[in-house]
Amino acid sequence: MQAKDPVGQFVHDALVADRSREEIRAALEQAGWFRDEIEDAIGQYATIDFKPPIPVPRPQPTARDVFIYAVLFTALTYTAIYLITLVHAILDLRMPDPADAPYIEFRATERMRWAIATLLVAAPVYLWMSRYVHQRVEKNARARRSPVRKYLTYIALFVSSMTFLGDATYLIYEFLQGTATLRFVLKAATVGIVTLGIFVFYLRDVEYLKGEK
């Protein structure tokens, strides 16, 4: 326990002095501490009747966790973006619009090549890292409590949900304007499917983490 944590130190000393958790909560509330601060401090110690009080495991970020999950979510980002790019390029080639500029076909071909090259690198890296993380979590209880994993998972949920909502909003706007072509609808559907898939996958991951507590 760190000396810079006065509430945690107080809870520790109070438990050693055989004060009940209810008494500790009441005293801290009367002193002006917020309820979430109080519960976080009390939650540092197990409810086992033992002296001195037993600290519960607290997740700690490590450089290894930062590296692993940064690579994982970067590969996920590249895979999602260039999968969408590939499908959009194919639609531009297969469903040309008479209003398209002459160079659209050339640009679509270039985007396809770049997207394929990126996917051949990013997708295997993402799949391999996902498998590695899953095995690591299954074998190591500490890995399940990684705060880096938690924060990046919620960032993935936020970004994917905001992208899906923006995509749906733009699709509805185009329909209301009467300018939604079949190609546009298919492009919007591609974005929606990819982002919704990411959201559902990592939402299940969050639920799994909750079940581990």
From TrEMBL:
Q: Where are the transmembrane segments?
A: 66-91, 111-130, 151-172, 184-203
- Keyword set for this entry? Membrane, Transmembrane, Transmembrane helix
Gene source species: Yoonia sediminilitoris
DUF5671 domain mapped to chain residues: 65-195
Q: Which InterPro entries match?
A: DUF5671
What is the protein's given name? Answer: DUF5671 domain-containing protein
Task: Specify the superkingdom.
Answer: Bacteria
